[in-house]
């Protein structure tokens, strides 16, 4: 499987597939939770995954 990228542009989350096609996907980010976290807490979550 190739690399898949996800980008948020002007509030829209788009996924780019290995063949170059893109599609809009649902934003599942809990922004209130994320904004309440410290940088250290975010790093801990990222490295846990």
Describe the structure.
The protein is α+β, with helices and mostly antiparallel strands and about 50 residues long. About 35% of the residues lie in helices and about 25% in strands. The chain has a 3-stranded antiparallel beta sheet with strand order 1-2-3, with no helix packed on it. The longest helix is centred in the last third of the chain and has 10 residues. The two termini are about 20 Å apart.
Low-confidence stretches: none
Q: What coarse outline follows from CA principal-axis ratios?
A: flat
Largest sheet: 3 strands, antiparallel
Number of strands: 3
How would you write the strand order of the largest sheet? 1-2-3
Distance from N terminus to C terminus (CA atoms, Å) equals 20 Å
Specify the structural class: alpha+beta
- State the assembly state of the protein chains: single chain
How do the helices and strands follow one another from N- to C-terminus?
EEEHH
Proportion of strand residues: 25-35%
Overall mean confidence score, pLDDT: 89
What count of helical segments does DSSP give? 2
Radius of gyration of CA atoms, rounded to a whole number: 14 Å
| Approximate helicity band | 25-40%
Total domain count: 1
What is this entry, summarized?
This protein is an alpha+beta fold and 49 residues long. 33% of the residues lie in helices and 27% in strands. 0% of the residues are buried.
Topology:
Elements: E1 5-9, E2 12-16, E3 22-24, H1 31-36, H2 39-48
Antiparallel strand pairs: 1-2, 2-3
